[in-house]
Amino acid sequence: xxxxxxxxxxxxxxxxxxxxxxxxxxxxxxxxxxxxxxxxxxxxxxxxxxxxxxxxxxxxxxxxxxxxxxxxxxxxxxxxxxxxxxxxxxxxxxxxxxxxxxxxxxxxxxxxxxxxxxxxxxxxxxxxxxxxxxxxxxxxxxxxxxxx
Amino acid sequence: xxxxxxxxxxxxxxxxxxxxxxxxxxxxxxxxxxxxxxxxxxxxxxxxxxxxxxxxxxxxxxxxxxxxxxxxxxxxxxxxxxxxxxxxxxxxxxxxxxxxxxxxxxxxxxxxxxxxxxxxxxxxxxxxxxxxxxxxxxxxxxxxxxxxxxxxxxxxxxxxxxxxxxxxxxxxxxxxxxxxxxxxxxxxxxxxxxxxxxxxxxxxxxxxxxxxxxxxxxxxxxxxxxxxxxxxxxxxxxxxxxxxxxxxxxxxxxxxxxxxxxxxxxxxxxxxxxxxxxxxxxxxxxxxxxxxxxxxxxxxxxxxxxxxxxxxxxxxxxxxxxxxxxxxxxxxxxxxxxxxxxxxxxxxxxxxxxxxxxxxxxxxxxxxxxxxxxxxxxxxxxxxxxxxxxxxxxxxxxxxxxxxxxxxxxxxxxxxxxxxxxxxxxxxxxxxxxxxxxxxxxxxxxxxxxxxxxxxxxxxxxxxxxxxxxxxxxxxxxxxxxxxxxxxxxxxxxxxxxxxxxxxxxxxxxxxxxxxxxxxxxxxxxxxxxxxxxxxxxxxxxxxxxxxxxxxxxxxxxxxxxxx
Lengths: 148, 564
Fold this sequence. Notes:
heterodimer; A: 148 residues; alpha/beta; Rossmann fold; globular; B: 564 residues; alpha+beta; Beta-Lactamase; Heat Shock Protein 90; 3 domains; five-stranded antiparallel beta sheet; 11 helices; 17 strands; 19% strand
């Protein structure tokens, strides 16, 4: 199975460092961002599969970052990580297209499990898109030249 | 203390309620009695004066008549003619036919010799020159005597006139029948005690007085009124307090006699006294009614004030509780969140330690297997403790937020017995009776059965805990409808809360259980849930008597509330 390209966004630097270390051992390509803006920067330059996103951050808050990610990179799966398990932010996150949410403190194995599920979903989605494209090309081969 | 205050308020209301009507009642009746009494006093007085004046006229007329009779006779005859007994007797008999007022006639010369006499006594030949009356008539030409006994020794009075012939002076005397004269005066009667009589200037009775006093006796009450030179007067006099009699007097024209009319005060003012008594009774009766009404009103009002005050105090306590809980709710979410972040970091770190340990396990296993096991155990323990912290912060967050609720129609009268069934076995072991007073007509309510179950299980567990070791433990669950709400109360007769703890009961982490037995989150979570479901939860409790939790739930779909 391909390595998962993972981006962790949290305002706790030590959490980023340790979690990066832990997840890199589990065949993940891990990037970290200390706030929403740098997360968007990384997403612009690198292809990411899954984003782990803290809901409560200074500056751009998690929900806002989620909104931007889903707008610019709709295929990237997002797992919300919240210390403040209000149903509102969870529901809002799910409505905005988050894959799932986890409540702090959460076990790293569980987190990894969710990351895997999210990545699988993304892969399945990409596979589906590819299939549709192939079907399209097969049924209307000329369209390949008409439009990208 | 407070009770005293309300008694004071009650008294104040009573006094104010009574003051106005009492003052008005007294003023009105006082004024009425005053005017009526002065009016009727005048009336009584005037009536007495009028009677005295009327009868004075009557007596004066009587005297005038008799005097003119005598003058007429004396003008008809000379002394020689009239001195003949036959002529005098003839005149006397003729006059007697009309009226028996005259008892006898006598003719006297200027020496006082009784020349002729007509009447029942034989007085002829006596000499009267030294008698009082003869001297007076000689002096004045006309004389009316006081009552006296004279030669005949019975009370009588006389009228004498002087006649001047060309040569000689002579006198005609008539004796007046005392009894017919007396009747003129004595028969006057006013109410019960009103009477009339005549006295002379010295207070000697000239007519009989009905209430005591014979002719020619001294009026025993004369000391009370001195006639003096007054022509007419009215006054009150008497030896007793407030003076016993009301008097009216009129002087007669032809004699120095005085016509007296008197009436006992009590009799004269009887209507007045009656009216005063009646009005006093009305004041007393009316006053009593007003006092009773006022008392009922005032005590009712004080009672209502007392209840209102108690309600106010209760509401204040509830408000304080709600305010405190809201504050704590806000704070605890903040705290929970702030603690969760470091917990997450710690968890990552411990996970890393565990991984590092497992990475280097094979290197040290041989030499340090014991230490390695201890290290692993320690790491596991850190995991457990972090999870414990996480549970506590979760509990805090549960208090302040509502979990997702699934609202559906439910029947409390079906749900509650089911919940009670879950704890019934435990209650039976503890010898606790669970009494269900559930109104079966309660409509379906829209609410979350799972959360309600959590709340009621918590309350029932608390009640069972409070009844531990008690002999006649009882839990009473009562449900009824009140308007658009359903009221559920869970009451126990267990140990109760100390009053200082009532306010804290819903606070997170407040517990009366020993360390390790309770987290202090049960009631606070129940409170958070009920608030989140649009309801309300209150508690009243007395130490060693029991506790009542009352929950109010809306029948309609609850309006969601984010926070308490």
